[in-house]
Write a structure and sequence with these properties.
heterodimer, A: 7-stranded mixed sheet, globular, B: 117 residues, mainly beta, 13 strands
Amino acid sequence: DAGVIQSPRHEVTEMGQEVTLRCKPISGHNSLFWYRQTMMRGLELLIYFNNNVPIDDSGMPEDRFSAKMPNASFSTLKIQPSEPRDSAVYFCASSFSGSLTGETQYFGPGTRLLVL
Amino acid sequence: AQSVTQLDSQVPVFEEAPVELRCNYSSSVSVYLFWYVQYPNQGLQLLLKYLSGSTLVKGINGFEAEFNKSQTSFHLRKPSVHISDTAEYFCAVIPRAGGTSYGKLTFGQGTILTVHP
């Protein structure tokens, strides 16, 4: 299995531009998570989906952030307009929820975003 | 709600020395417990997890952790560390009911382990 795939791996953009981050979860997993990691705030859960439905988006910072999961194999996290304080590493993770073996989340390599 | 406290933000050790990374949690319900490792410029990788049974759990790369319910702790240990163990380590919990988990993982703030030659 290729694991969780994220693209792009690096993104540099200017303030005010739209940024779209993409994630392909592990095949067969039914839960998908978007995290943000910064030095100041550590690892924060932004939103998670179960069976393509958003379950908890309480971590989404503000209306500039939106996430979609149109099908079981693809999700996007969009920032519009972007601001310098959005600079961070964004991780996508997936898991099989409801498993008797415990909900192990598998993380992608992350997208390193820099907003100038 | 759950909370996880990693008691040390940084732990420097010399190569071949033993190490313990401390983790305490708080939860009103039963939980599963995890340790993840993050190597520089990479995503998080599962190190080990406690679901049930023996309170001593063995993971990859020679790490082990012991679940102590009375002290609500899940400390990570390795008897002899290598330079390659230099990374950030995260403790996490997820609520469980019966034999399955539900809700979201709650992570600690992380402990940076630096192994010196």
